[in-house]
Write a structure and sequence with these properties.
alpha/beta; Transcription Regulator spoIIAA; six-stranded mixed β-sheet; four-stranded parallel β-sheet; 22 helices; 37% helix; globular; disordered C terminus
Length: 611
Amino acid sequence: MIAPNIMPLADRVSHELLPFVRKPSQYIGKEINGLAKEGDWGKADARVVIAFPDTYALGMSHLGCQILYWLCNHTPGVCAERTYCPELDAEQRMRDRNIPLFTWDTRQPVADCDILAISLQYEMVFTSVLTMMDLAGIPFRREHRDDTHPLVIVGGPQADNPEPVADFVDLVVLGDGEDSMASILRTYKELKASGMRRRDMIEEFAKRYDWIYAPGLYDVHYHVDGTVREIAPKSSTASPLIHRCKTMDFENAPFPLRPLVPFPDVIHDRIAVEIMRGCPQRCRFCHAGYTKRPLGLRSVDQILEIAESMWRTTGINELGLLSLSTADYPQLRELAQRVSERFHPRGVNISVPSLRVDKMLAHIPSMVSGVRKGGLTIAVEAANDDMRRAIRKKVTDGHLLDGVRAAYEAGWKSVKLYFMTGFPGERPDDIEGIFDLSREVSEARRPISGSPASVTSSVGWLVPKPYTPFQWAAQPEPEYFWDVRMRLRDLAKSRRSAVKIRMHNIERSELEAVFARGDRRLSGVIETAWRMGARLDGWDEHFKPEIWQRAFEQEGVDINFYAHRERAADEVLPWSHLNGGPPTPYLRKQYEDVFRQIDPSGSLELPVLSA
């Protein structure tokens, strides 16, 4: 028998890992349409690992990573493979057997890559980033890495404020991934061929591209009260302001025409086409609406061509037409009709994300033959019309009820509503209205079918985001949200209906608010929490708020300072050197207008709900 320490890594995964973990199919790799083949890794000029710091089931549902995987492997001289965060049982087995983090395609050691490209989609993946780096044998801290280690590059929505993980990364890409990745690959091959050392590449990348941020080239100085005084470049090669990389030709941007097909079930088992990038609505709480600019559109012909290729090369019978606001796609009626005509006879369901009901009405008849009608999802956000106006959510009760009636007549049987609480100026009737409006939506089906619709209302807590008007806002303290939770549960118990109320985890939402607007001092908290056992924090079954509480206490960091403090209008924010959104004066006017919309008298104070 070959000793474990000299057995090839691919064989070790097969013999020492897969038989000993739950759901081993998620670690097999070799998926249909995989692009990296045996032997490509060793011959490549640039070896890239596309890393998604969450489970395989979630990572394989992420379209962005599939796009980067496709782009890299269609670039001459580049081999890209994928890796994901192992679940807890697999992590423990890998540690027990000293199995390093591997790539899914041909099971290469992740540490052997040239570029480790990590997608930061969500605040709560930070400990998973550390899990993956530790399993790979890559030191956490930037200053502890040398020229034998890969360049650690992060991108994605959470990279818009990367300061909480600034000590862990070499480079940050601000903005879209298609053009930025193509430029990085081209430049890396050039610099590697010239013999440039890894440590020198970091500064060279930052000098060449105004959308690349190298955190190690900047110092952060603080006031006595803990607020940021200055983010200062250490050298003349570091730009005082980083800009956003934008995909200007969205119509022809790289896209996976032969997407990977997972073996096990994943969160979204569908072929997905991004029909539009950005959103014209700019709801005042929405980070993506303010940062994904300018609006990018794909033509109906291009969407159909992509969808046809994806369907023929996968056999998956669900097609997702994706965007931040599908209802705002200008040719939605034509697209829905042509997609339905082509794919409905083949038994392909069409799925769409939550639709804004004022535009949805016009398109339900044309989409009825092709859209799966098990459930309809609508993002309402606030229960009352005036609060929706304040947050710029262009939905009225009249549009909502007319929309769901049309949906019920077209065959829909259930509705999922999304609400958010914690907005400045929120009143008790805004909370009670969540249940009342949900019940109205449910009862609207009774005249049509004789019974109410099943309505599930998901209630989340406001997490103020960078580059939005709410970036200055204090998140209400947990006690406020616990009060909201109690009130909604009492209403659901006391008034019989077909409405179910589900609420997000309050402790996790508080941490999201901390990390969304945090600074570099949080790196120590993240590392301490990880060492205490924090893992896969986005999953209810793994999230342990008590670990985070101890980590903040041990590091001497105040949660309230980051989550529950109103920022001054002139405060230097941790991302002030990153030009990731609209001008600050514009955002500030938008923030002040929220208060004018709710209370024109100017006497508004955030109320405390009674128990």
